[in-house]
From TrEMBL:
Pfam families: HTH_3. PROSITE patterns: HTH_CROC1 (PS50943). This is HTH cro/C1-type domain-containing protein. One of its GO terms (molecular function) is DNA binding.
């Protein structure tokens, strides 16, 4: 699916008109039509769309992850926080290599699924440790 196809998917799912998209991101209605028909939008339009409609920019660009997930910074921070909590719970000093390994595994999971239950986090962490 093209970037414009993903624009269309978000717009239809939210019941938004093309004119509303155009107004929200500061482009013409014709540009929205062209993008939805397959013309690649410039980076500033992708960023504006992502911010205006709270859509994952990685999903918009490449179809990776979920449309509704948080920014990659948020996901990365959450993955490190979960890994740190797991590693530090015994009171021992946390090894940097272990934190990186667990944080990376969790980050990958969050990128693909958008969220993680406590039980799944525990399972991933125990497998990766």
């Amino acid at each position: 699916m093209s970037i414009g196809g993903r624009f269309l998917e978000v717009r239809k799912a939210r019941g938004i008109k093309q004119t509303d998209v155009a107004e929200a991101i500061g482009i013409s209605h014709g540009a929205v039509v062209n993008y939805e028909k397959g013309r690649d939008p410039p980076a500033n339009v992708i960023i504006a769309f992502s911010k205006a409609f709270n859509v994952n920019p990685m999903w918009l660009l490449m179809g990776i992850g979920r449309a509704d997930q948080s920014s990659t910074d948020d996901l990365y921070g959450r993955s490190i926080e979960i890994a740190w909590t797991y590693l530090a719970r015994g009171g021992d000093e946390v090894a940097k290599a272990d934190l990186v390994k667990l944080g990376s595994a969790l980050f990958q999971y969050l990128m693909e699924h958008g969220d993680i239950s406590e039980a799944m986090a525990e399972k991933l962490l125990s497998l990766s440790a």
